[in-house]
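stage 2 :: seqdesign
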């Protein structure tokens, strides 16, 4: 159905005669209003508008208002400059929002920071370059880690507005134990010896024997039958059973939010309490969002925002006291091994006490571990002073 109507004002000597002419020519009149003897207003189809001037040149015909698509076209035509400026502004802002203006490497070593920035620049992750996808950044991260295995332990690239924030953990360089011309192997801490492997030197302690920190286990001083000492470089490794006291808190209600890696960007028109996407999109079942304004007006409740939606998987559990205790013990085992790289394995765990703290449980543990307690200490050769009798 055609809804392109126009409201027309007709002015002349006798508008009654004009109405008769309209009826005679079967011009469809939707609405008619004789304002006065020389003024008439009619609502007709736009396709009949050009016929109105054929009756007489003495009538003045003026369009007062258009309806339907005609009105929409008029609004667009009359506001074309504003609309074009708005569209160009949106395109420009969208373009700017997809450019990176800063790459911040969060680390306190300037040499490492320079290294990371150079590595990122190889893959065009730098200032004034277009933003990269999550999948691309993930591949860049893996390549940088593979190319710098001796330097980097962990690397993360996070997008925050128009900048990348890079966080890292530098790989700890294994400190080589000092080696001396003459040396003994001693205990690095109090422990019960679990095993001794002596490659050179004399074992002066036995398995299951308790030793304190600094006690000699493999001696670099050998005593000859004549009572004199022979100094050598003792070598070996010692494992000991060491006890740690650990306190752990664990929630009875557990919630984990894990990002899947999938994400999408959307542009929204926000008016009052409504959000209207410029382009239709399918929402994730569970997601978290990062939002920032592209266009905003302080006087009217209107703004255009860009949102990035990250798909997440949410896992929720409610534990009994016994389940929470078991989870806490497992977490304690993991943490104690992470903090001490010399721990070979966890031997035994004993719970000392437990305490309920509202929505979580606190337990104190004694954890027995098998740990490398090998430490090297220097042995200095004793010199005898010769006494000369006069």
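stage 2 :: out
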């Amino acid at each position: 159905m055609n809804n392109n109507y126009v409201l027309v004002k007709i002015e002349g000597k006798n508008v009654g005669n004009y109405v008769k002419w309209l009826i005679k020519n079967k011009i469809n009149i939707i609405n008619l209003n004789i304002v006065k003897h020389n003024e008439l207003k009619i609502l007709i189809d736009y396709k009949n508008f050009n016929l109105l001037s054929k009756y007489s040149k003495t009538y003045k015909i003026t369009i007062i208002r258009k309806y339907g698509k005609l009105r929409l076209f008029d609004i667009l035509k009359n506001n074309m400059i504003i609309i074009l400026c708005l569209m160009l502004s949106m395109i420009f802002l969208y373009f700017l929002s997809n450019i990176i203006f800063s790459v911040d490497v969060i680390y306190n070593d300037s040499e490492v920071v320079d290294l990371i920035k150079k590595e990122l620049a190889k893959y065009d992750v730098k200032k004034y370059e277009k933003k990269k996808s999550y999948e691309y950044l993930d591949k860049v991260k893996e390549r940088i880690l593979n190319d710098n295995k001796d330097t980097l332990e962990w690397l993360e690239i996070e997008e925050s507005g128009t900048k990348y924030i890079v966080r890292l953990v530098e790989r700890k360089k294994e400190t080589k134990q000092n080696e001396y011309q003459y040396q003994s192997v001693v205990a690095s801490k109090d422990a019960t010896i679990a095993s001794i492997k002596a490659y050179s030197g004399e074992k002066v302690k036995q398995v299951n024997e308790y030793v304190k920190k600094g006690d000699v286990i493999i001696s670099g001083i050998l005593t000859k039958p004549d009572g004199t000492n022979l100094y050598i470089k003792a070598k070996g490794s010692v494992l000991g059973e060491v006890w740690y006291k650990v306190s752990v808190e664990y929630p009875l209600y557990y919630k984990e939010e894990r990002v899947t890696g999938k994400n999408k960007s959307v542009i929204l028109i926000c008016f009052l309490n409504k959000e209207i996407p410029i382009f239709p999109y399918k929402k994730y079942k569970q997601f978290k969002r990062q939002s920032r304004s592209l266009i905003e007006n302080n006087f009217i409740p209107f703004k255009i925002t860009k949102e990035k939606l990250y798909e997440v998987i949410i896992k929720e559990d409610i534990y009994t006291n016994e389940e929470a205790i078991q989870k806490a013990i497992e977490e304690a085992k993991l943490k104690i091994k992470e903090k001490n790289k010399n721990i070979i394995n966890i031997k035994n765990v004993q719970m000392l006490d437990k305490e309920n703290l509202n929505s979580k449980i606190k337990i104190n543990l004694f954890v027995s571990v098998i740990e490398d307690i090998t430490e090297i200490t220097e042995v200095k050769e004793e010199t005898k002073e010769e006494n000369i009798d006069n």
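stage 3 :: structure notes
- The chain is about 20% helix and 45% strand.
- Helices lie at 15-24, 69-78, 80-97, 110-122, 134-147, 321-339.
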